[in-house]
């Protein structure tokens, strides 16, 4: 589980984070900006990766996930790499797999390192991406594309 101590999820956790970094490195070398998107375990891995490594990217969508470990953590700002990073977070208020307090702590962590966080908490109990979230994700991606096109 993502709320277990990090050591208990090794060596797979280290391998998964390395794979995320490797794939992101391949994608970020191209001409198009990269927006990272993860749901559930993917959102947990991306939260941890982004807060730990703080790579430059065009945005992040983290649906029903949060950083790893049992306790809230402090995250150092690594030179403003996440400053103004648009981050969309969304989750059900009573998701059975990802507690709301961790999503909220993750949103605070991103804000503390300068990211611009939108956090949508919706009245639902299912562990899924609902229609409202799909609409918000589409809007978020359209804004990112528009921003990129305006700067190109």
Provide a descriptive summary of the structure in words:
By secondary structure, the chain is an alpha/beta fold. It has helices spanning 12-28, 41-53, 100-112, 131-151; strands at residues 35-39, 59-63, 86-92, 116-122. It has a four-stranded parallel β-sheet with strand order 1-2-3-4, sandwiched between helices. The longest helix is centred in the last third of the chain and has 21 residues, at 131-151. The protein is globular and about 45 Å long. The model has no long low-confidence stretch (mean pLDDT 94).
Brief digest:
This protein has 152 residues and is of the alpha/beta class. The chain has helices at residues 12-28, 41-53, 100-112, 131-151; strands at residues 35-39, 59-63, 86-92, 116-122.
Major β-sheet strand ordering? 1-2-3-4
Proportion in β-strands: 15-25%
The tally of helices reads 4
Biggest sheet layout: 4 strands, parallel
Instruction: Give the oligomeric state.
Output: single chain
Principal-axes geometry comes out as globular
Flag low-confidence runs. Answer: none
Helix content: 40-55%
Query: Quick one: how many beta strands?
Result: 4
Alpha-carbon Rg, integer: 15 Å
Structural class: alpha/beta
N-to-C series of helices and strands: HEHEEHEH
Report mean pLDDT, rounded to a whole number: 94
End-to-end C-alpha gap: 42 Å
């Amino acid at each position: 589980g993502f709320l277990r101590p990090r050591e208990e999820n090794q060596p797979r956790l280290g391998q998964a984070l390395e794979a995320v970094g490797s794939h992101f490195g391949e994608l970020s070398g191209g001409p198009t900006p990269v927006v990272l998107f993860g749901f559930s375990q993917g959102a947990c891995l991306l939260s941890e990766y982004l807060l730990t490594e703080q790579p430059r990217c065009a945005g992040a969508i983290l649906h029903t996930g949060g950083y790893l470990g049992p306790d809230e953590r402090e995250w150092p700002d690594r030179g403003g790499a996440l400053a103004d990073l648009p981050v969309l977070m969304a989750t059900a208020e009573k998701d059975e797999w990802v507690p709301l307090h961790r999503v909220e702590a993750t949103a605070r962590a991103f804000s503390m390192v300068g990211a611009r966080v939108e956090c949508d908490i919706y009245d639902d109990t299912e562990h899924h991406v609902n229609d409202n979230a799909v609409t918000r994700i589409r809007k978020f991606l359209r804004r990112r594309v528009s921003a990129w096109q305006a700067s190109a």
